[in-house]
Design a protein that fits this description.
Helix content: 40-55%
Number of helices: 11
Shape: elongated
Largest sheet: 6 strands, mixed
Length: 315
C-alpha cells in the first residue's frame, strides 16, 4: 500500500469521478484506475462504485474512509514537521446552502487561515440533500444547512447548532411595508414575491406559510444570494432566515431591511453537519473556528431586540 493510493481515493471521493480526479492530480485516468484497483485487491474490498455518471465511494469504502483520512492527516503532520513547505496539504471542502451563511463562514475561514496559513478550503454551494450525501460519502468534510424546528436529523451524521433565528420578510428600503413593525401573510400574498426554488428550505417554508396558496406574481431563484439582489433591485420581496439578512452587505449599506412575519413563530437554525466519530485534525479545527465565531456573534432581530447565538448539539 502506498500513500499516493490513499490520496488518489480521497481525490476521487472529493471530485466524484475518475476523470475529474485524474485532471486534479495531473495523472492519466487509466493509471489512476489501476492504482485504485490494486489498492482494492490488497485490502480485499470494493472501495468505489464505478458508474457511468461517475465514481462514488462504496459502503465498504465509507467504513474505511475515516482510517484513511487519519493516515493522510498523520502524513501531512509529518511532512510539516520535516519542514517540507512545498508539499500541498489536503484540500478541505465545506458545502453550504446558498443562504448568506457568508456572515458566519467568512470570519470563520479567516480565523482558520490565521491558524493554518498553508491550508486550502473549497466552499461549494449545494442544496441540503446534496450536502448531507456529500458529508456521508466523504466528498465534503463539513456541511452548513438550515433546518426548521421539528425536522429530522440524518441518522448517520452529527450536528452542531450554530445560529438560531426565525424567517423574516426581506424588503427594499423605501417599500411601504418597511414602515410597519411586522408584515401579515395577507400583505405578503398581495406583493410580487421572490421564491426560492424547490429543494431549498425557504421554498418549503413559503408553501407552509401561504398554506399552498402562493402569491399570484412570483419570480423564482436558486438561493438566497440572488434572491436578496432581486429584492434590492425592486423586483419583489422574499422571506429568509433573519441571520441571512442582518449583517449582509446589502443590509449594512441600507439597500435591504427585514421585518417579522406577523403571527409566525417558526424557528430556523443554521446547523453544521459532519461525520460521526473523531474528525481529522484540520477538519476539527475548521469546525472549532465556525463554533467560535458563532459563539461570539450577536444578531439584532428586526424588532430591535437582540438575539444571542449560543451553539448547542443537535441529535
Amino acid at each position: 500500500m502506498r500513500i499516493e493510493q490513499l490520496e488518489y481515493l480521497a481525490a476521487v471521493t472529493q471530485h466524484g469521478s475518475l476523470r475529474r480526479a485524474s485532471e486534479r492530480l495531473h495523472i492519466s485516468q487509466p493509471a489512476l484506475s489501476e492504482a485504485l484497483t490494486k489498492l482494492e485487491r490488497e485490502l480485499g474490498v470494493t472501495l468505489l462504485d464505478r458508474r457511468r455518471s461517475g465514481a462514488r465511494i462504496s459502503r465498504q469504502g465509507q467504513d474505511l474512509l475515516q482510517n484513511m483520512v487519519d493516515v493522510l492527516e498523520a502524513v501531512d503532520r509529518l511532512r510539516q514537521a520535516a519542514g517540507d513547505q512545498g508539499t500541498a496539504t489536503r484540500l478541505l471542502r465545506i458545502g453550504t446552502v446558498n443562504a448568506a451563511t457568508s456572515t458566519l463562514l467568512v470570519p470563520a475561514l479567516r480565523l482558520f487561515q490565521d491558524r493554518h496559513p498553508g491550508a486550502t478550503v473549497e466552499v461549494l454551494d449545494a442544496q441540503q440533500p446534496e450536502i448531507h450525501q456529500g458529508v456521508v460519502e466523504g466528498s465534503l468534510d463539513l456541511g452548513l444547512v438550515n433546518v426548521l424546528a421539528g425536522d429530522d436529523a440524518p441518522a448517520d451524521l452529527a450536528g452542531t447548532a450554530l445560529v438560531h433565528g426565525r424567517p423574516v420578510v426581506v424588503l427594499p428600503v423605501g417599500h411601504p411595508l418597511a414602515a410597519q413593525p411586522a408584515v401579515t401573510i395577507d400583505q405578503l400574498r398581495e406583493e410580487r414575491f421572490v421564491a426560492m426554488r424547490a429543494g431549498y428550505l425557504m421554498h418549503r417554508f413559503a408553501h407552509r406559510l401561504f398554506e399552498g396558496r402562493m402569491p399570484r406574481r412570483c419570480h423564482t431563484t436558486d438561493g438566497a444570494e440572488m434572491g436578496k439582489l432581486m429584492v434590492a433591485e425592486g423586483l419583489g420581496i422574499t422571506v429568509l432566515p433573519d441571520y441571512s439578512v442582518v449583517g449582509d452587505p446589502l443590509e449594512r449599506t441600507g439597500l435591504l431591511v427585514c421585518r417579522p412575519i406577523a403571527g409566525d413563530e417558526t424557528a430556523v437554525t443554521l446547523v453544521l453537519r459532519h461525520r460521526e466519530g473523531q474528525l481529522p485534525g484540520r477538519v476539527r479545527d475548521l469546525r472549532a473556528a465556525l463554533v467560535e465565531v458563532a459563539r461570539g456573534r450577536r444578531t439584532p432581530e428586526p424588532t430591535g431586540t437582540v438575539m444571542e447565538v449560543v451553539p448547542s448539539q443537535t441529535a
